Amino acid sequence: MDLDFKRVVIKLSGEALSGGIGHGLDDETIEKICKSVKDVYDLGIQICIVVGGGNFWRGRSSEKIERSTSDHMGMLATIINSLRLQATLENMGVPTRVQTAISVHEVAEPFIKRKAERHLEKGRIVIFGAGTGMPYFSTDTTAALRAAEMQADVILLGKTGTDGIYDKDPNKFKDAKKFEELTYIEILNRGLGIMDATATSLCMDNNIPLIVFGIDNPENLVSVVKGERVGTIVRGK
Ligand code: UDP
């Protein structure tokens, strides 16, 4: 694989932390994911993590709550997940900092790009919580934004329930075909729902490579950075 893995953004959905239940936090699953993150860290790779919040709340979950309030709830959920990942990684001896896009001074730093750079240089993993800080966006878009800002070489998008991008839902169609490689424009043109259109366009416009892989087996993360053919690679061109 021709990709560089000096600095990566790992995107984990909230659901990935729930151990197949979809809700809440599963200790064993989080341990396994953090162990794989540590294995990547031990290879000397600089790591930023963007974590979702769907295991607690998604903005579009409720019709009874005004969307921006609902999205704020979702963003707060990502902070809970960020702290959970931080605690587990630090138990494993990996130094981390959480930076959030919504201020919660008592528990985490605000997002400051230059400070995040410094943390990475000092060998700390930086976990970005609270998404972009703005409603109507997703944490996939956050991953694209932070990858552009932090000049990451690649986004590693760990998915539950799939091991890459298919032309149709592999859980519904036996003849679904998995893509080895794709471009962002193909994702948009084919309407492949792997990421929302905002995240996809942001990656496309900034030419950020993306690897979509299955996080149900967290060891895939290590295989990906070792250049093994795992998942689907998406490129700008
Ligand atoms: N969210 C938001 N702005 C952002 C990122 C997230 O409003 O920049 C909210 C939104 O409500 C979203 C929720 O936070 O549904 C959780 O994020 P996401 O759905 O991306 O989490 P995931 O599906 O990856 O667990």
Describe the structure.
It comes from Parvimonas micra. Its EC number is 2.7.4.22. This protein has one domain: 3-Layer(aba) Sandwich (Carbamate kinase). Strands 4-3-5-2-1-6-8-9-7 form a nine-stranded mixed β-sheet, with helices on both faces. The protein is of the alpha/beta class and 237 residues long. Helix content is 35%, strand content 18%. The structure holds uridine-5'-diphosphate (UDP).
How would you describe this structure in keywords?
237 residues, nine-stranded mixed beta sheet, binds uridine-5'-diphosphate, single chain, Carbamate kinase, Uridylate kinase, Asp/Glu/Uridylate_kinase, 9 strands, nucleotide-binding, Uridylate_kinase, 7 helices, ATP binding
Mean pLDDT: 96
Structure summary, number of beta strands? 9
Second rung of CATH, namely the architecture: 3-Layer(aba) Sandwich
Helical stretch tally: 7
Binding site for UMP: 53, 71, 132-139
EC number: 2.7.4.22
Family: Belongs to the UMP kinase family.
Protein name: Uridylate kinase
Would you summarize the structure shown here?
It is built from seven helices and nine strands, in the order βαβαββαβαββααβαβ.
Question: How are the secondary structure elements laid out?
Answer:
Blueprint: E1 7-12, H1 27-42, E2 46-51, H2 67-91, E3 96-100, E4 109-110, H3 113-121, E5 125-129, H4 139-149, E6 154-159, E7 181-183, H5 184-190, H6 197-205, E8 210-214, H7 220-225, E9 232-235
Parallel strand pairs: 1-2, 1-6, 2-5, 3-4, 3-5, 6-8, 7-9
Antiparallel strand pairs: 8-9
The chain binds uridine-5'-diphosphate (UDP).
